[in-house]
Amino acid sequence: MKKAVVVFSGGQDSTTCLIEALTRFDEVHCITFDYNQRHREEIEVAQAIAQELGVSAHKVMDVSLLNELAISSLTRDNIAVSHELQENGLPNSFVPGRNILFLTLAGIYAYQIGANTVITGVCETDFSGYPDCRDEFVKSINQSLVLGMDRALTIETPLMWLNKAETWAMADACGKLDFVREKTLTCYNGVRGNGCGACPACDLRQKGLDGYLADKEAVMASYREKAGKD
Q1: Other beta carbons within 10 Å of 207
Q2: How many C-beta neighbours within 10 Å does residue 176 have?
């Protein structure tokens, strides 16, 4: 029996990965992390989506220690999410160590349930400048988990080389474009669906959707080529 663990936030990217995983695995488990993030609604959205899609299990894990250690606009209500980069060249929405922690815990969870695959929606092509979304980082932590647990494990990143328009094409290829568009929460200000329309996450999401809707055939062909589905 093929099992997978999806790192799941209820946003566009992780929901698209979840939908695709459900077509390939016999059991799909979701793990959502509660780190007292800025928009708590994402946990409720993740729970609702996981239930509606019928995943095998959905674990919400308390990792509020991250909030105490990592200072970011996503962990502090008194820091406004900004389009401007900080002095270190990173957006102030970057949460230091987040994906290091999330992927490590997801790997441990996979070990316990007998899954050999962890799926995460990180992307290096259209990302927000987060260093822990890079392919190099994911491969490195994958190797560390294999060495540290002495067990085969693959971290899959289905969106790594897709742009946002191609991610929308992926959802459409799975027959879930409207579902992802209406029920996910990507917005940094906690607004479901199309979001607040002003934050960096909403900008990226909308530009991708506009790009896909403007030329569905070409974008879908590009997605299929990158995904090896031709």
Answers
A1: 14
A2: 19
pLDDT tens digit string along 212-227? 999 999 999 999 999 9
Nearest to 72 by CA among 31, 121, 13, 132: 132
Q: How would residue 228 be classed by pLDDT, with cut points 50, 70 and 90?
A: confident
- Residue 1's contacts (CB-CB under 8 Å, 6 or more residues apart) are 26, 27
Report residue 139 as tokens. 């491969």
**How far apart, in whole angstroms, are the C-alpha atoms of residue 189 and residue 16?**
21
Whether pTM > 0.85 for this model: the answer is yes
From the number of C-beta atoms within 10 Å of its C-beta (0-12, 13-18, 19+), residue 62 rates as exposed
89-123 tens-digit pLDDT:
555 556 667 888 899 999 999 999 999 999 999 99
Total length of the chain: 230
Q: Which of 1, 2, 13 is nearest to 201 (CA)?
A: 13
